[in-house]
Design goal:
The structure is a single chain. By secondary structure, this protein is of the alpha/beta class. The chain has two domains: 143 residues, Bacterial extracellular solute-binding protein, family 7 (D-Maltodextrin-Binding Protein, domain 2, 3-Layer(aba) Sandwich); 144 residues, D-Maltodextrin-Binding Protein, domain 2 (3-Layer(aba) Sandwich), CATH 3.40.190. Helix content is 42%, strand content 15%. It is built from 15 helices and eleven strands. The strands form three sheets. Strands 7-6-8-5-9-11 form a six-stranded mixed beta sheet. Strands 3-10-4 form a three-stranded antiparallel beta sheet, with helices on both faces. The protein has a two-stranded parallel ribbon with strand order 1-2. It is globular and about 65 Å long. It starts with 59 loop residues before the first helix and ends in a 7-residue tail after the last helix. Bound molecules: (2S)-2-hydroxybutanedioic acid. (2S)-2-hydroxybutanedioic acid (LMR) binds next to loops.
Length: 403
Amino acid sequence: MQSFAAWPAPRLAKDPADRTRTGPKAPAPRPHGRGANRRYTSGTNHERGPEVNLYTGNSMRSRLRAGARRLAVVALSAAWLAGCGGGEPTAQAERTYVIKFPHVTAPATPKGQAADRFKELAEARFPGRVEVEVYPSSQLMDDDASLEALAFGEIQMIAVSLSKFDRLTHAFQVFDLPFLFPDLEAVEAFQASPAGRELLGELTDRGFQGLAFWHNGMKQFTAPRPLHAPEDARGLKFRIMESDVLQAQIQVIGGSPQKMALGEVYQALQTGTVDAQENTWSNNYSSKFYEVQPYLMETNHGYIGYLVAVNPDFWASLPDDIRSGLEEIVAEVTEWGNARAEAINQEAKAQILASGRGEIIELTDEELVAWQEGMRPVWDEFSDDIGQERIDAALASRPGNNH
Ligand code: LMR
């Protein structure tokens, strides 16, 4: 059912100098727009052609040569320090660990706020030892590129929508099943269950060490006409995230799905490349979709949340005190951010209302049941891939356990 493109072997580009202030500085943020989403390797379906460094344009070979040169310089410096009575402890103590953390949403969104909070707490706890460079709003790269960059050690941290790990694992598809989770509380109960916690380690072997799940919120449809019933969506072109479940979800209601990076959606809606899309209130507001979409349907039909992940080799290379300190901070930020996510989304909804642009349509209970029934075939289509046990564990997290 799903074309499952082989992901290139991760765990390359482990030049330690790339992670410290002795390594290359981060580039100036790239501009928004099409160029901002350019992939940085050639080849399709993640087959690797000559690899090009995201920041310098160098090939992998020349990067490895440069890495060897840097290592030689580091070795010479260490020998020199040892001769001066300095030695390894001094060099280690002075080292600054730089964590590049690009993401695609605006700073005011749940993810934007959590990422900034992580930076603030990490730098306050480890002054001069840890520096976190947060790049919001797709300034550095889009999510697809960041998955690859993390696996290859070009960046150190991500918080990418669970839907977008689709080509790496079927396990996260459970989060995309329409109307499976009624609200964030149900999602959180599942994520805290053994079946949910297991998912944090799902991709460690492939270069993504999961540290936490961060919420955004529940999704709403936006469209050029009111969508009271699934049939109203027939014939519309919908932008979706990179997920085969979401693709099936649109197809089952007679729409035409188009996978697209978030940074391209506003223009695509404006120019008519796509007609409609689904997103959270905070993304609909901060990405200004309500300016180019006359109707926003309050369907809460799906969930957007993130896997916060680090490059496993980078994480293992951190001194124990820094690694455990950062893990504590991630846990603290997770609690802080997830507790605020719903309020941030409701505030964004209120801002859309206050703008007077984009009509918010509340659906009746009967209309919502029609949507649930219309999309339900997607569950059966993906139950083998996801695993019925995992779906059952998610169902058990719903209030009242109602299937
Ligand atoms: C989207 O692409 O619509 C979302 O994944 C954006 C996000 O990260 O919330």
